[in-house]
Amino acid sequence: MPIDTRQIQAIVFDAYGTLLDVSSIDAYLINTFGEDKATEIAKHWRQKQLEYTWLRSLMHQYVDFYTLTEHALLYALKATDTAAETSIIRDTMSQYYHLKVYDDVSPTLARLSEKYKLAILSNANPSLLEKATAYNNIDPYLSEILSADILGQYKPAPSVYQLAEKAFQLESKEILFISSNTWDIAGASAYGLQTCWLKNRQNGLLEELGQQVNLEINTLNELTLVLG
Q1: Can you give the pTM of this predicted structure?
Q2: CATH of region 22-98, choose from 1.10.150.240, 1.10.3720.10, 3.50.50.60, 3.20.20.60
Q3: Active-site residue 149, yes or no?
Q4: Are strands 175-179 and 194-198 parallel, antiparallel or unpaired?
Q5: Contact at 8 Å (CB) between 216 and 197?
Q6: What is the mean pLDDT of residues 163-174?
Q7: How deeply is 85 buried, as exposed, middle or buried, from its count of CB atoms within 10 A (0-12, 13-18, 19+)?
Q8: Do you find a cis peptide bond into 156, omega within 30 degrees of 0?
Q9: CATH 1.10.150.240 domain locations along the chain
Q10: Kind of pairing, strands 194-198 and 20-21?
Q11: Is the pLDDT of residue 31 over 80?
């Protein structure tokens, strides 16, 4: 089903991989662990970070996203046979407060905020999101920063996407959800939000879960052409 732009009153963005570039931490990893180790650490870290959100949800053993991310880092270090002192682990974790946004983020948010209410909806706990958005000076464009942490569960649980409806007091069809993560698009579509897949970030494929995306774009700049 094509996007219905006439009904959209709010636009909600995923954070990691959509607005915030997780690979911007790679320079720190290379400087700290060396290039070869850094590549392997980053691969394991990101994979386990995502897997742990699903595993903990299925096991009903929630921990906040910061803690989960640290556990994923510890796994990555173990998987790559990398020794790291506690101070290095803490410093590595702190890089999540300083992730950079993609180049197309700030100008697009500035333009869209003139017409629409904007929000982030993320698995990350509020402190991670608030510090990262402030670091990149995009917080003035956001009406809400919505975190799954308030529910004690992670996307793609339907209740997490419902946070956007409650925050804006809008119906699902009046909200456009944007993510580069195909599993996230599937979850938001299943819940009933209009969805936009930002496909150039990861160059993946849409999931075969029976859901349809309403709009596909290569860069966020294209949103201003579609939505005005």
Answers
A1: 0.94
A2: 1.10.150.240
A3: no
A4: parallel
A5: yes
A6: 97
A7: exposed
A8: yes
A9: 22-98
A10: unpaired
A11: yes
Of 4, 14, 64, 104, catalytic? 14
Reported as a single tens digit per residue, the pLDDT across 73-89 is 999 999 999 999 999 99
Answer positive or negative: Cα dihedral of 102, 106, 107, 110. Answer: positive
Per the document, the length of the chain is: 228
- What's the token pair of residue 177? 């959800």
Amino acid at 157: A
In the numeric block, which tokens belong to residue 99? 């992730």
Contacts for 27 with CB less than 8 Å, ≥ 6 apart:
none
- 223: Cβ–Cβ under 8 A, 6 or more apart, which residues? 11, 108, 112, 178, 196, 217
Question: Phi/psi zone of residue 192: left (φ > 0), alpha (ψ -120 to 50 degrees), beta?
Answer: left
Residues of the chain with CATH 3.40.50.1000: 10-19+102-227
CA distances from 199 to 55, 77, 94, 160, 179 (A): 26, 30, 28, 22, 8
Structural class in CATH, domain 10-19+102-227: alpha beta
